[in-house]
Amino acid sequence: MYIYDQIDQRLVEERVAQFRDQTRRFLTGEMSEDEFRPLRLRNGLYIQRHAPMLRVAIPYGLLATRQLRALAYIARKWDRGYGHFSTRQNIQFNWPRVEDVPDILAKLATVQMHAIQTSGNCVRNITADHFAGIAPDEIVDPFVWCEVIRQWSTFHPEFTYLPRKFKIAVSGGEQDRAAARVHDIGLQAQRDAQGNVGFRVLVGGGLGRTPMIGAVIREFLPWQHLLTYLEAILRVYNRYGRRDNLNKARIKILVKERAPEVFRQEVEAEWAHLKDGPATLIAGEIERITHRFTRPRYQPLDPLASAYVLALGRDKAFANWVRRNVHRHKVPGYAAVTLSLKKTGVPPGDASADQMDAVADLADRYSFGELRVSHEQNLILADVRQADLYRLWREASALGLATPNIGLLTNIIACPGGDFCSLANAKSIPVAEAIQRRFDDLDYLYDIGELDLNISGCMNSCGHHHIGHIGILGVDKQGAEFYQISIGGAQGNDAALGKVLGPSVSQAEVPGVIERLIDLYLARRDSEAERFIDVVRRIGIEPFKEHVYGGHHQAAAGRDRQLAAA
Amino acid sequence: MADIIKQQRVATDNWRLLRPSADGGLPPVPPTGDVIVPLALWLEQRAALLSRSGGLGVWLDSHEDPAHIADDQRHFDLVAVNFPKSTDGRGYSIARLLRERYGWRGELRAIGDVLRDQLYDLSRCGFDAFVLRPGEDPHAALPAVEEFSEAYQASVTQPLPLFRRRYLASPDGMEWS
Q1: Coil, strand, or helix at residue B16?
Q2: Residue ranges per structural domain of chain A
Q3: The pLDDT value given to residue B175
Q4: pLDDT per residue over B22-79, tens digit each?
Q5: What's the pLDDT score for residue A95?
Q6: Contact at CB, B177 and A7, closer than 8 angstroms
Q7: Domain A6-109: assigned CATH number
């Protein structure tokens, strides 16, 4: 956990005071709704379908237990007793009152938290790999670099009114677990031949209406130049990004319209003026920030302690959970654990205040008082002793947080959708639930194997449907809620955008379509090792299309529709 | 005549802002008095403007490139940057370029849809005069120029980022705060 110094703390407190005054002026009518909008947005406050929504920043997804308890407190006192963890590793409260928001922000400030720049056309929360610091394959700890960028981007005077929102992700190594390729800027840590650390810089990736994979504009940027280079990219974007059309205002459109190579030259020309200037990073600063992070005090442990190995052999349910929800750790004898927020019947990513408190207790007892939020909307205990896994599993099971489905079809990523969000065309949560119910047989689920299924309620793509192996997008069809299914998307190093399968289908038809996709996959895979995404890549989408929309199925779908209408 | 914020004070101002006509035509220039002319007018009528009496300023719109006036600075008493909408952030980059790249040291004035809650960032980008949107009270807005006591980044008002100032104050520990 990064521990604030006095200045970090003072800035957050001054922000609370500023927003308190802005809210007061709005509520007394001194300021119009139009003037208030950009100000409240940069403090995470949306006016939503039922009530305001407040998005609280969880920088790079890292939380201390006292912070999680403060979130539970906020959920109880100012909301309806729960919160929603988002794909940007933040948490959203769906029912606060506008007049309470300054008090909520003040409460957050007491635990070194805030809602700064969680919305608005500015640099948003910097995201990272949720296994940062513990992954065996990482080159640098991305959290440190995220914090460097967080400080640089917080209240950046030049970039508070960009053409559109701006998202940066940092991956600590070659294996991209931060979805760096679908961010406005993706940074991937590298080492050059001399062993120096730097970053590969990708620009112009993103989901939304025009999904794109980012273009590499620099293969190796030495770390000292990180901030001046970011500044050059942001300045080119701020000056030339489109402001005439909201749907074309993201940096990806600028990169595409100019061509990545031309854009790269513009950035390099701008950078020539900024390079080696005062914003050039120094080793002392990286060291200072590194040391402000608390670090677990690992004990020398025996890997694969006998009690753990015995429990694996004895208890199949435990072994299933270990197989799916427990992950490798670079320190012998330790493991990372995903607590699933994807229990069937619970909106993906939702956690109650009681669960938050209970998770805080688990993290205190089993994982050095810290946890992480993953962009797949689960909670991670990153530093658990293998010898404690069995006890932790039993406790997590009792709390409904041990669904052994990480990486499987039912670990669905979903936005809040039309139940909550005023932007959505269609609901997401009931669709997720219907699919989870259809695939509730664990053996079947395990047989299907690794599969990412992502649902977005609209083109804004908060549910990352483009990069799901199966993606589901809510669309509006003459006032009715329909769903467009795509397949072949992927995150990570082989990131790809899914292709639309065919005409959209009704909510009732979605689980049936998924089932047919799975049937064909199981029939066509050459072995259990060939995943759904591998088969799609090998045979293309045509056979899937045919299987879903073939003559027989159309008749069946017609019957379904008649039944649904009756 | 209007009250504006200038050098962190409310001051009465006599400068006349000349805007293009509705069809984009260049406005007529009064023979005397202090005027701020659009960039296009400066580029087209440079000699005439230089021979008239009265102060001369030029204003850039948010899409205009400050490089156009980089070599002309000695002719201006002030430079203004227009904000067609308060959420159009291009003027912030223009201001930094004028100050940091082209070395403009005279008055840099924010005009157009300028609101109290932007003054702090505008000021950090190099603006030192602000003509607020009509109806805004400059006296009430004045404290907003210094809303925060510290900043992480380098800016026009603080050319060293916080981490460098920390390092200079305490090169061994960097724990000054």
Answers
A1: strand
A2: 6-109, 127-289, 306-398, 413-565
A3: 52
A4: 888 999 999 999 999 999 999 999 999 999 999 999 999 999 999 999 999 999 999 9
A5: 87
A6: yes
A7: 3.90.480.20
Q: Do B151 and A235 touch (CB under 8 A)?
A: no
Say whether residue A239 is in contact with chain B using an 8 A CB cutoff: yes
Q: What local confidence, expressed as pLDDT, does residue A419 receive?
A: 84
Q: Write phi, then psi, for A32 (nearest 5 degrees).
A: -80, 165
pLDDT at site A566: 46
A29 touches chain B (CB under 8 A): no
Q: Inform me whether the pLDDT recorded for A564 exceeds 60.
A: no
The pTM is what? 0.92
**Distance, CA of A139 to CA of A205 (rounded, Å):** 23
Contact residues on chain A for B153, CB-CB shorter than 8 A? 152, 155-157, 279
Mutate: best of A8, A34, A148, A155, partner B, most B CBs <10 A:
A155
Flag if B96 and A158 touch (Cβ within 8 Å): yes
Ramachandran class of A149: left when φ > 0, alpha when ψ lies in -120 to 50, beta otherwise: alpha
In A275-337, which residue ranges form alpha helices assigned H by DSSP? 283-291, 306-314, 316-325
Q: Which of A125, A108, A89, A80 is nearest to A19 (CA)?
A: A108
User: Which residue(s) pair with B110 in the sheet?
Assistant: B81, B130
The total number of structural domains in chain B stands at 2
A156/B contact by beta carbon, under 8 A: yes
